[in-house]
Amino acid sequence: MKIYTKTGDEGLTGVLGSQRLRKDDARIEAYGTVDELNAVLGLARAGGLDPSADALAAQLQDDLFNVGAALADPNPEGRFHNQINDAHVARLEAAIDALVDEVEPMRSFILPGGSLPAAQFHLARTVCRRAERLVVHLAHQPGEHVPSALIIYLNRLSDLLFVLARAVNHRAGVADVPWKPSP
């Protein structure tokens, strides 16, 4: 089987169903950025994480495939359109609560950094915020339908990635990098 199909050579790509969209369409931008986020999580995992953080990151990667499938399915009645739901959001919130209990309370803003895995989770957080902005943009396009659970999921996921970065630093015995405003 060949990897290249040549069907996108004219700047169009397929989504679920028979529809083809321009590669710079808001829907393609949104799920392409979710794919980028998934790759950043893969990078963090490849660097070696403690088993708990790795298991959480693996679950997030699986979820992000569901997010991507939902975004690639423009039909509100489609098989994949409603892949993400309130249970996914609740699972993120439970993980956030557990990780917050593990780290010291914040006393200042924190710069991305510390350990390499923490920095990678901070990078993932910023890509997640961009994905969220693109999904919100898609949701406001005429004729588009985006399940609200997708937007809520991405909003919570960015919070989780922030706390996960802090927890990874804590577990490694590496201090977070506090922001020190200029005088």
Characterization of the model:
α1 (26-46) runs antiparallel to α4 and α3 packs parallel to α5 (148-172). The chain has a two-stranded antiparallel ribbon with strand order 1-2. The chain has a two-stranded antiparallel sheet with strand order 3-4. The chain is mainly α and 183 residues long. Helix content is 60%, strand content 5%. It has a single domain (22-103, 112-170), classed as Cobalamin adenosyltransferase-like (Hypothetical Protein Ta1238, Chain: A), CATH 1.20.1200.
Quick structural gist:
With 183 residues, the chain is mainly alpha-helical.
What integer is the average pLDDT?
A: 89
According to CATH, what is the class?
Answer: Mainly Alpha
Number of strands: 4
Q: How many angstroms separate the termini? A: 61 Å
- Choose one word for the global shape: elongated
Number of helices: 5
Q: Helical content, roughly? A: 55-70%
Beta-strand percentage range? 5-15%
**Uncertain segments of ≥5 residues (pLDDT<50)?**
none
Task: Kindly provide the radius of gyration, computed on alpha-carbon positions and rounded to a whole number of angstroms.
Answer: 18 Å
**N-to-C SSE string, H for helix and E for strand:** EEHHHEHHE
Question: Pairing-aware structural class of the strands and helices?
Answer: mainly alpha
CATH topology: Hypothetical Protein Ta1238, Chain: A
CATH superfamily: Cobalamin adenosyltransferase-like
Number of domains: 1
